[in-house]
């Protein structure tokens, strides 16, 4: 199997064992695909078969061991039940944190799903920040040209579409800055790398727009780029010309030079982003982790003292930091670095950029939840090389989690509990050697952009698969009506509102025509009422539901939407907020994809996400009830069961909902083999056809002869009500032939 510069090989070792070897930048995705396929086949077709899987020891992999020790899922599961903090690999006795092993395995419980999601999002943030430039485009609808001026002026929508077509730009926008919520606009401006303003006479003449531009430049101090729109530049004669004199302009006032200017815009955005990164304060490469109760300086300044916590005064972490700084080592320490970003954000940034961590461990350090979290995050999650400096007076820390992690990762150790000035030089030497080794590794790396693109795609796909797997395995049961699994709340676009209104007027016109033609005596009251109900009601809500194709190489939103329930404003807010635990997780994943929705790119969407995130965090981990309630609402709104054009398909042994394009791309081998003899384009694809399934004749617009109808290939749809106990036969999915 090959995918995205990855390759995987499945080998049947004996009758009961299959070995999967995967190579590439992110082989975990391949392993998850194979595991999910085998697990689904066993659950659906081989009831009673016991299945266990093994993953390689992480330390064996990091040390390039040819035959790594394998960790059993059943063993890990048992260790979790007994609350065991660590496991050792059986061949080389590497000490591994159970949390580290659990994060590498497929999730079954909600807390595991959230743990995986947090790790994936952190990884997506790191990859996205390096790969793309986030742009916020601010323009006014007053600059959208009329039909008579369409060939004279550049349409801002054209610029927006061209920016979004660039893979390395992630673009959000607002076209009504004069009436938008200022809080939402500020959030969007702060969250993006470069702010592009569509500057014109209309924009400059609006006081709100003008204040927003100057507020972004002078108060928020964000990198801005000015895009000149319209046909005139009278604004240059006003009071905006002076404060904007030093900013970069891209002149879009001449439509015949658009192709040249749009390329100039792309280059200007890249330069703005690069200049911002150059002036960004560099984060030191040496991270100092310590407990304040072990610092003489902190106690002298009023921090809470603890008995027997202070050892040798020269072992004060802040004193050692000053020594390293004097020797030219840039050090991150909390008292100097924690600022406006907040404590945890500042610590996370410091750890992410660190090349080495110096941890001043002690009994007090091992008892501090924050210190242990720092240590675990650095050593296990980020794999930052760590140097242990022992301070304080006790040795109980060696028997706790910190001590076990330090032993398992072979961290070098220096003792500063007692007078040991030579220990300074030992620490300096270890820090310099570690940083030099990291620099050599960075210099040897090649094709980083290509690897980063692949990694981003693989991490996103893996995150989507894990989330969808949890929904289908934990929330959806066999007795439920079949319906797509992924749906999202979004804003209806202006074009969709206009199209709906046109169709509604057309329905009303057709209804009036029918009334004139029909004889009142020949039409019953029920028929009249039924025709009246077929007229589309006016759209009252600004929200809608959108369904998504569950393609294995990335989700995408279907073009058709489902209307929102007819509720008052309070009812709408209640429906959305009660669905917050599900929607928050889904929005979090979608933000890092190429999906462009107003709920993800508009300022109103930023406010919506922020509100739902606050509610979702308070609600806890499990969101089964919230998901099923929202699913019921979506199904009630989709009375015709159009399902936005999605099809229920069997792919690699599991049921997924695909669009027409991806449905045809994933046709089974049997369908391909007999495609000439019968046509299944309009069928609901299915792999297994038990005897208890009710046959349904294929629909046809033309009336066929009885003989032709008998010859026609019958399609099958599951009829649960007609099934008898024991009536199902175990049959292997067609996807087995692919394996």
How are the elements arranged and paired?
Blueprint: E1 2-3, E2 6-14, E3 17-23, H1 28-45, E4 54-56, H2 58-62, E5 70-72, H3 73-81, E6 86-88, E7 95-97, H4 98-104, H5 110-131, E8 133-138, H6 156-164, E9 169-174, H7 182-191, E10 194-199, H8 201-205, H9 207-219, E11 224-228, E12 249-251, H10 258-279, E13 286-289, H11 296-300, H12 317-326, E14 331-332, H13 334-337, H14 343-353, E15 356-361, H15 363-367, H16 369-381, E16 386-390, H17 401-408, E17 413-415, H18 422-444, H19 448-474, E18 487-491, H20 494-517, H21 525-533, E19 543-549, E20 556-563, H22 569-578, H23 580-590, H24 598-601, H25 603-619, H26 624-637, E21 647-651, E22 654-658, H27 660-665, H28 669-673, E23 694-696, H29 706-711, E24 715-717
Parallel strand pairs: 8-9, 8-10, 10-11, 11-12, 13-14, 13-15, 15-16, 16-17
Antiparallel strand pairs: 1-2, 2-3, 4-5, 6-7, 18-19, 19-20, 21-22, 23-24
Helix pairs in contact: 1-19, 5-19, 7-25, 16-17, 23-25
């Amino acid at each position: 199997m090959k995918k995205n510069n990855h390759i995987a090989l499945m080998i049947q070792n004996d009758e009961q064992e299959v070995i999967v070897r995967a190579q590439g930048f992110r082989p975990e995705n391949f392993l998850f695909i194979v595991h999910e396929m085998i697990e689904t086949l066993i659950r659906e077709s081989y009831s009673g078969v016991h299945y266990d899987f093994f993953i390689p020891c992480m330390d064996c992999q990091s040390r390039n061991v040819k035959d790594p020790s394998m960790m059993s899922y059943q063993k890990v599961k048992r260790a979790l039940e007994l609350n065991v903090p660590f496991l050792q690999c059986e061949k080389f006795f590497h000490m591994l944190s159970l949390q580290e092993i659990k994060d590498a395995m497929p999730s079954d419980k909600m807390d595991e799903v959230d743990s995986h999601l947090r790790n994936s999002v952190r990884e997506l943030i790191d990859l996205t920040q390096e790969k793309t430039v986030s742009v916020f485009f601010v323009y006014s609808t007053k600059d959208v040209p009329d039909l008579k001026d369409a060939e004279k002026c550049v349409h801002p929508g054209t610029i927006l579409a061209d920016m979004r077509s660039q893979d390395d730009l992630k673009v959000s926008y607002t076209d009504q800055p004069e009436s938008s919520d200022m809080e939402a606009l500020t959030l969007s401006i702060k969250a993006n790398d470069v702010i592009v303003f569509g500057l014109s006479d209309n924009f400059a003449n609006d006081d709100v727009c003008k204040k927003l531009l100057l507020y972004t430049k002078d108060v928020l101090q964000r990198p801005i780029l000015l895009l000149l729109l319209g046909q005139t530049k009278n604004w240059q004669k006003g009071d905006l010309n002076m404060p904007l004199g030093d900013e970069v302009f891209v002149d879009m006032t001449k439509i015949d030079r658009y192709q040249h200017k749009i390329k100039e815009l792309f280059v200007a955005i890249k330069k703005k982003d690069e200049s911002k990164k150059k002036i960004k304060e560099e984060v030191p490469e040496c991270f100092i982790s310590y407990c304040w109760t072990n610092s003489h300086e902190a106690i002298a300044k009023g921090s809470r003292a603890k008995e027997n916590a202070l050892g040798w005064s020269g072992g004060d972490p802040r004193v050692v930091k000053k020594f390293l700084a004097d020797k030219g080592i840039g050090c991150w320490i909390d008292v100097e670095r924690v600022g406006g970003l907040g404590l945890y954000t500042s610590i996370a940034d410091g750890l992410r950029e660190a090349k080495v961590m110096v941890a001043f461990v002690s009994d007090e350090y091992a008892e501090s939840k924050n210190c242990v979290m720092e240590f675990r995050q650095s050593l296990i999650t980020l794999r930052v090389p760590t140097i242990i400096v022992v301070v304080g007076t006790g040795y109980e820390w060696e028997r706790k989690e910190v001590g076990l992690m330090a032993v398992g990762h072979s961290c070098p150790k220096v003792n500063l509990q007692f007078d040991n000035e030579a220990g300074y030089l030992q620490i300096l030497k270890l820090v310099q050697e570690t940083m030099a080794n990291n620099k050599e590794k960075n210099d040897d790396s090649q094709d980083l952009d290509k690897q980063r693109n692949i990694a981003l795609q693989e991490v996103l796909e893996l995150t989507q698969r894990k989330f969808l797997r949890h929904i289908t395995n934990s929330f959806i049961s066999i007795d439920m009506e079949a319906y797509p699994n992924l749906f999202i709340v979004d804003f209806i676009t202006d074009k969709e509102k206009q199209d709906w209104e046109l169709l509604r007027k057309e329905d009303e016109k057709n209804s009036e025509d029918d009334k004139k033609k029909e004889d009142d005596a020949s039409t019953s009251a029920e028929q009249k009422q039924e025709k009246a109900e077929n007229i589309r009601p006016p759209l009252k809500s600004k929200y809608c539901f959108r369904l998504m194709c569950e393609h294995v190489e990335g989700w995408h939103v279907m073009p058709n939407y489902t209307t929102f329930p007819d509720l008052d404003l309070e009812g709408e807010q209640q429906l959305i907020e009660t669905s917050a635990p599900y929607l928050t997780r889904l929005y979090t994943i979608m933000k890092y994809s190429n999906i462009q929705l107003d709920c993800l790119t508009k300022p109103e969407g930023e406010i919506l996400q922020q509100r739902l995130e606050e509610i979702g965090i308070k609600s806890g981990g499990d969101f089964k009830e919230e998901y099923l309630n929202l699913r019921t609402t979506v199904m009630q709104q989709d009375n015709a069961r159009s399902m936005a054009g999605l099809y229920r398909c069997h792919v690699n042994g599991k049921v997924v909902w695909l669009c027409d394009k991806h449905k045809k791309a994933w046709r089974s081998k049997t369908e391909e083999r007999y495609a000439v003899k019968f046509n299944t384009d309009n069928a609901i694809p299915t792999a297994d056809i038990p005897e208890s399934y009710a046959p349904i004749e294929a629909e046809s617009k033309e009336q066929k002869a009885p003989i032709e109808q008998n010859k026609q290939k019958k399609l099958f749809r599951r009829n649960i009500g007609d099934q008898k106990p024991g009536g199902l036969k175990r049959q292997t999915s067609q996807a087995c032939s692919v394996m």
